Amino acid sequence: MRWQGQQLGVDDAAALPGMERMDGLVRSVTTPEFAGMTFHEVMAKSALNRVPGASAMPFDWTVNPYRGCGHQCTYCFARKTHEYLDLDYGADFDSQIVVKINVADVLRTELRRGSWAREPVMLGTNTDPYQRAEGRYRLMPDIVGALTENGTPFSILTKGTLLRRDLPLLTDASREVKVTLAMSIAVFDDVLQKSIEPGTPSAAARLDTVRAATAAGFRVTVFLMPILPHLTDSIAVLDDALAQIRAAGAARVVYGALHLRPGAKQWFLQWLEREHPHLVSSYRGLYPGVSTSAPKAYRTWLGKRMRPLLRMHRLDGWDEDEHPRGRPQPGLAARAPESSSLGPIRSTGATASARPRVAPASEPTLF
Fold first, then answer.
1. Binning pLDDT at 50, 70 and 90, where does residue 31 land?
2. Angle value at C-alpha 121, between 351 and 52, nearest 5 degrees
3. How far is CA 301 from CA 25, 34, 44, 184, 291, in A?
4. Looking at the predicted structure, is the pLDDT value of residue 11 above 50?
5. Of 300, 296, 302, 291, which is closest to residue 230 (Cα–Cα)?
6. Other Cβ atoms within 10 Å of 274 Cβ, number
7. Sheet holding 179-184, edge to edge
8. Beta strands, E only, the chain
C-alpha cells in the first residue's frame, strides 16, 4: 500500500487526506466479528474537507470518518477513491477500511479556529458514516458533539441503521443547531438487495429507522437512488417503494437514475455479467464508453413515470436533475449564501468571514 512504501516523515501530496505520512498508520486490525475485513487505523491530519467550487455538490464542507465501505454496494461512486491508497476499487474498497480514529479531536481543533464561519457540514458524501465499522469505533457521537458544541449545522446521509443508536444525541443536537437526516434506500426486493449491496441493512430495517427518526421529530428525506434500469424502474416496483416510504413517515423523496462513475462502472458491469447477463447489452447501450449517466431520454422517461406516483402517494418529491449543479438538494446541507449569516446560533467566540485553513478535498474524494 502507498503509505507502507513512504519514507518516514515525508509528505505525499497525492495521498488521501489523513494518509500523507506513513506514520499516520497506527495499526491494521482484523477481528472475528468482521470476517474478511481489515481496519487500518490512522491518525488523521485533517477532518474538514473543502468541496471544490466547481463541484456539482450543493454543499461546501464534508467530514468523512471512514474510507472504503462495508456496505459493498456494487454501484458505489466512491470506489475509485481507494486507488489513491494503492488499493483497488473492487474487493479492497469493500474490505480494506481506513478508520480515522482521531477525527473528532482534529475536527474540534479546526472548528475552534477563528476563521471557521460555522457553515453547514455534510456527513455521508463519500462513504457511509454509519457503516458496520461504526459499531466498533463509535466515531459519530464525538463528531456530532464537536459540531453541536461549536454551533455548526450538519446533515447526515446514510444507509446504516446504526443511526438509531444516536437518535437521542441527534435530538439534543437539533435543539442547538440545524440537523437534517436522510436515509438512502435503493432496492426494496430482499433478494436483489442482498445481491447488489450485500453489506447493507434490509430495506425494512432502514424504513424502521426512518420511522424512529420521524418519531423523534425529524423530517426525514428518503433518497430512492439509484433507480436501476430494467431492475427497479417498473411501475409496480416504484409504486411499492413509494407506498412503503410513505407508510414509514418520510417527509420527501429524492430520486435519480443510476450513475456509473469510473471504478464503479467496471465493478457494476462485472456484477451484471454474473447475475443478470441478459441485461449487459442494454446497459452498455445506456452507458456506452466512458459515459457515467443514463441518457437524458431515459431520465425524462423516468421522471414522467415517477411524478404521478409521487402525487398518488402524497409525497413531496424531486428528481435530482431538477436541481442545477451546486443548488441545494432537499434533505442535505446547503451552501451558505456568501452575503448572509446562518441565523442565530449558540455563541462559541468570535467568527471571522475567512474560511479556515484546512486540507482541501480533491475532486474524487467528495462523493
1. confident
2. 95
3. 48, 42, 45, 22, 19
4. no
5. 302
6. 9
7. 48-50, 61-63, 121-123, 154-158, 179-184, 221-227, 252-257, 316-319
8. 25-29, 38-42, 48-50, 61-63, 66-67, 96-100, 121-123, 154-158, 179-184, 221-227, 252-257, 316-319
CA separation for the pair 157, 354 (Å, rounded): 27
> Angle CA(162)–CA(167)–CA(169) in degrees, nearest 5?
115
Partners of 317 in the β-ladder: 253
Separation between Cα atoms, residue 47 and residue 101, nearest integer Å = 11
The 3 state secondary structure assigned to 255-317 is EEECECCCCHHHHHHHHHHHHCHHHHHHHHHHCCCCCCECCHHHHHHHHHHHHHHHHHCCCEE
Q: What is the mean pLDDT of the chain?
A: 85
- The model scores a pTM over 0.85: no
**pLDDT value for 24:** 76
pLDDT at position 230 is 98
Q: How confident is the model at residue 8 (pLDDT cuts 50, 70, 90)?
A: very low
- Residue 247 CB neighbour total at 10 angstroms: 12
Give the pLDDT of residue 328.
Answer: 62
| CA–CA gap between residue 136 and residue 333 (Å, rounded) | 27
To 5 degrees, how large is the angle CA 64–CA 265–CA 184?
Answer: 45
Question: Checking DSSP bridges between strand 61-63 and strand 48-50, what pairing results, if any?
Answer: antiparallel
H runs (alpha helix) in 74-153: 91-95, 103-111, 133-137, 140-150
pLDDT digits (tens, 9 = 90+) for 93-133: 999 999 999 999 999 999 999 999 999 999 998 899 999 99
Task: Output the nine-digit C-alpha cell for 284.
Answer: 452498455
pLDDT surpasses 80 at 225: yes
CA distances from 79 to 34, 139, 155 (A): 20, 22, 22
Q: Which residue is it, cell 445506456?
A: 286
Do β-strands 66-67 and 96-100 pair in parallel, antiparallel, or remain unpaired? antiparallel
